[in-house]
Amino acid sequence: MSSMLLNQELKKENYEICIYEYFTVDYRPLSLGERYLRHAGMKKALWLAFIYAMIQFACAVGLPNQLALAMLLSILLMTAYLGTFGFLSGDSRMYSPVSAPFLCWSLLFGVSTILLVDGLLWLLPPLPNWLDDSFNILQTGWLGILCLTLLAPILEELLFRGAIIRLLLPHYKPWIAILISGLIFGVIHANPAQTVPAILIGCALGWVYYLTRSVLPCILIHIFNNGMSVFLSTQFPQEENLAQIMGAPVYVAVLVVAVVFFAMAVRKLLPYQETTPVEGEQIIENP
After folding, report:
1. In the chain, alpha helices (H)
2. Which DSSP state fits 92?
3. pLDDT tens string 168-207
4. Under a CB-based contact definition with an 8 Å cutoff, are residues 197 and 258 in contact?
5. Radius of gyration of the chain, Cα coordinates, nearest whole angstrom
6. Which of 132, 127, 128, 157 shows the shortest CA–CA distance to 67?
């Protein structure tokens, strides 16, 4: 009996250690240099977000009657900026393929997260959509649809996961870096109807990136999200959400299934973690 109790205690202790190590590494205090690096990483992350916002604003103002062309130009300019200043290189894992099982589970995680976020918005009071007219215009032509469903997701994953969160991870606990990058991702959309879901989905994408250091699963999830949004908007223009399209009973059943798949996906993804550090990367504790 005592042997069984001892084994149970050891298993519980090992589990608690694994959960603890997922969020922290050590207790050591930050040196002055490490504090500077942390500040510099945050400053660069915010600067990239600011540059992206300014490029979008300048293109929209410069081409007020050509929204699709303005969006394409902003995507090309931001991609060029990231490439010119080395944000698209330096980590060979950023574009590395992941295993087929992980890709499947990450996609299931992403789809279930998107559905659950939609369910949360269904329960909340409607948020103002300041860009509704702009999206309607973009969805009337092939260039706008291409930008919304393919080019923008690729750029934003390179920016927010491939660059911004990569700047934060060496200097913050993983969950803090993921949360900060998600908040930046939401705020940069500058549209209340998008900000809340973008923060939540951005955090989910940040977690997937943290597990692998690859943007490929994140890009696929982002493409699915935007593609589904454009499809539903064009095919059901009078409906505000999935609940109105499906009907409340069916929608609730879908959400229950999404909860189950979400839990399964998290359980499968948790053990997968790329621990090889990027050259020069070190984990710094004490936020």
Report:
1. 2-23, 32-62, 67-84, 100-123, 132-138, 142-146, 152-156, 165-168, 174-187, 192-212, 216-235, 242-246, 248-269
2. G
3. 998 899 999 999 999 999 999 999 999 999 999 999 999 9
4. no
5. 21
6. 132
Range of the domain at 225: 35-269
Q: Is residue 2 part of a domain?
A: no
Residue 13 located in a structural domain = no
3-class secondary-structure state, position 271: coil
> Cβ(105)–Cβ(219) under 8 Å?
no
Q: Is residue 24 part of a domain?
A: no
Residue 42 falls within a domain, yes or no?
A: yes
DSSP letter string, 99-132: -HHHHHHHHHHHHHHHHHHHHHHHHSPPPP-TTH
Predicted structure pTM score: 0.84
Q: What's the number of domains the chain is made of? A: 1
CA distances in angstroms from 56 to 51, 73, 190, 191, listed in the order given: 9, 9, 11, 14
